[in-house]
Amino acid sequence: MLPPASRFRPEAADQDALPPRCPACGHGAPEEAFAAHEPGFRILRCPDCGLGRTWPAVPEDKIGGWYPESYYGRGNVRFNALFERLIRLFRRRRAAVIYNRVPRGPVLDVGCGRGFLLSFLRERGYEPHGVEFSDTAARHARETLKLPVAVEDFASSPIEHGRYNAIIFWHSLEHFSNPVGAVARAAEALKPGGVLAVAVPNFGSFQARLFGPKWFHLDVPRHYFHFTEKSLEAILARHRLRVVQLDHFSFEQNPYGTLQSLYNALGFRFNLLYTLLKDPSARVDELTHYPFQTAAVVALLPLLLTLALALAPLEALARSGGTMELYAFKE
User: What one-character-per-residue DSSP string does 15-44 give?
Assistant: First the structure.
């Protein structure tokens, strides 16, 4: 007699055929949420824990095509000068938050990008390590900041068990085709009492429910999964990671998520404001092709930005922020 199939078989490679079993709670019958804005893709939702999934998933050997060099910008500069300064300010603040929770020692940033967070942690006395799947994404961290960043797949890379005081998935976990496996690997690499820091878009948020395929933080197909609070906590609990803090307010992410989604819902060129804020080398669209829309975006900005800023604390109070940030201890 064959042994009963595990409720959590999605950790194995058996997810190519519909219906995919939910990686978070093991439910076996997903429902279709909506067709994505990107043609050819749709979003499936688990009726139990609410986890969303981009379907069909882009094969791992093809996903690099969705991250062309222009995605990162010339010299790894993605945004205009003002927003580049803000990015560094937010990374410095994040380093301070980690400093208040994690003793000095080795830390690993999975999906470290340009390495700003690791650089600020190094200034505070930590031993920084990073992982990136793209050499282009890691170039600034490795060549300019001289950080030890490995260009490899974290899910299959060699790790030293029980090494790190903290492992960070800051808006990177949703980019994994097997996030459960990534969390399991992180749990192995953490020291007992070590901290897992995670930030992800909140698929259960007011923004996600209101805007659906127009929601800025959906980012199909680069985001394989779309987490709810329930689904993320279920994944962590299975690997003995106890959530001790979960925040629904992010000044860096949530107001802008509402702002850009409002423009998308009003029928403007998709993510046009986001394009405006980028360095010219990182723009997909030529703004000269949309002069009237660009002018309208600028004209509406004071009104829509005020609305987005006003909604952000209300979302957080309702525990329905557009993104979630959590800290979990390895038991």
Answer: -SSSSPPPTTT--S--EEEEE-SSTT-EEE
Domain count, the chain: 1
Convert the pLDDT of each residue in 77-112 to its tens digit: 888 899 899 999 999 999 999 999 999 999 999 999
Domain contains 311: no
Euclidean distance between CA atoms 108 and 111, whole angstroms: 9
What spatial distance separates the first Cα and last Cα of the chain, rounded to whole Å? 36
CATH number at residue 177: 3.40.50.150
In a domain, 40, yes or no: no
Predicted TM-score of the model (pTM): 0.92
The domain in which residue 94 lies consists of 80-202+221-255+323-330
Closest Cα to residue 147, out of 180, 114, 173?
Answer: 114
**Paired residues of 197 in beta bridges:** 168, 327
| Spatial separation of the C-alpha atoms in residues 43 and 31, rounded to whole Å | 9
215-228 confidence digits (pLDDT tens): 999 999 999 999 99
